[in-house]
Amino acid sequence: MIPVRPRIGAWLGALSWLTAATAAEAAPPCSSLPNPVYLQVGDTQEPLMKALGQKLRASAVQPITLIYKTSGSCTNIEAMYSDVKLTTNPSYVPSAAEDPAWDPSMPAPQCEIDPGGVTLDVTNSNVFVSACTQAAPPAGVAEFIGPVQPYVFIVPKGSSQQAITAEQGYFVFGFGQAGGAEPWTDEAFVFSRTTTKSTLLAIAAAIRVPPSKCKGKPFDKSSEVMSAVATSTSPEKTIGLMGAEIYDANRDKVSSLAYQAYQQTRAYFADSTSSSRDKRNVRDGHYTIWSPTVYLARVDAAGQVTNPRVAYVLKLILSEATTPTPDFDPLSIVVGRGLVPECAMKVQRAEEGGDLSPYAPAAPCGCAFEAYVGSPSAACVACGDDAACGAGKCRFGFCEER
Amino acid sequence: MNILKIWAAFSLLFALGACGGDDAPSDVAGAAGAGNGAGGAVGAGGQGAPCSTAPKTHVELINACTDAQAIEVHPVLPLLQPDGSLPPLP
Fold this sequence. Notes:
The structure holds 2 protein chains of 2 kinds.
Chain A: H1 4-26, E1 36-41, H2 46-58, E2 65-70, H3 73-81, E3 91-92, E4 122-125, E5 141-156, E6 163-165, H4 166-175, E7 190-193, H5 198-207, E8 217-219, H6 222-230, E9 239-243, H7 244-248, E10 254-256, E11 258-260, E12 267-268, H8 280-284, E13 290-298, H9 308-317, H10 330-336, E14 347-348, E15 357-358, H11 366-372, E16 393-395, E17 398-400
Parallel strand pairs in A: 1-2, 1-4, 6-11, 7-8, 7-9
Antiparallel strand pairs in A: 2-3, 4-13, 5-9, 5-10, 5-13, 14-15, 16-17
Chain B: H1 2-19, E1 28-29, E2 51-52, H2 58-62, E3 70-71
Antiparallel strand pairs in B: 1-2
């Protein structure tokens, strides 16, 4: 008969071995992954990282592994400005061979970072850089303006609220309970984000409340706000802040509010109706809570991205032509994640929460965008080449003006 | 009865003339509301706030004519200043 203590020791040893083995299997060295690009992005961009990363891992023409960590926009800007290395285990997008069952709706596995840390190739802010720092990028770093990211107020499915005005937002988030802006007067049910997060920065700029003065319960992650709002014990009093693409993926759990900006006469959803997904009001200026996504990368003296793999990934995100031509449709991935490519925008702004002005992209893609979201306008004509478009151009399968 | 009909016809003509008058900016129309929900709908070209059909400025863009779903909101905000402006943050 084996004494109890040695038997427990044996069990513990076996358990320890199993844990180590499982961890080793779950976390390969990041340096072992092929053609890596290291990114630090806002958590609102994780769906894009996963979807784009899956296509890039499977690409026959330019295979790339996206290895990423999520953090707040201001933190990410600082990381590139100050050359902060990645020292904690990041997530990576597995290949089909590594995990045949994985899809972008699942959590991404982690890899084991080199003990000395790794230099980041790309960082991402989902607000204008000027919302975080007035400093220009250091020499050797440049900004690349990516697709537009809308943000929304969300309420539980059990709430009867449909809209919020900028003035209401000012009192709810600027004064809390003292603001008396019913029904959102109980700060225990006002769910916000921490002050480095783009979601708070963008919405705070829209309602003109400095992020540091915003009331409510701040959460680090979008998923935490989503859970708090969806499971609130007081639905009518509950409100939260969210990136639109996270909301789009959770429409069965929460509702978004229409928003009426200062000087606007009515409230509008980010989409043309509460149930559509066309981002029409973002594109034409009726919905004003949005920011461009900004990508920071290392460049040479001529402003060209130094790492060819990074340049390739950025061009895909920015919906620009690149060589080799990808063996998947990058625009559909961007649009499918709730983002609006710059080429589909009809308005622009120069600073966070700033006034809008008309915008005419140099290489428009409005018809393709509308086709992707299922609502091509009658004026959109499908084409195979420029010959079908008269004086216009055939872009992404549709005739555009330019 | 005939007098009433003539008066009504003149009133209608006068109203139509005013709507299409030279003084009105050509790119401004009645709100093409397709709204529902709180506050109710505003009919196309109807009684809502004017909207721009060729928006250029920020205010024109955010209030441009659209058939998107719109919601009228009239919140009660007890801390608004008497002139409708916002008080400073605490």
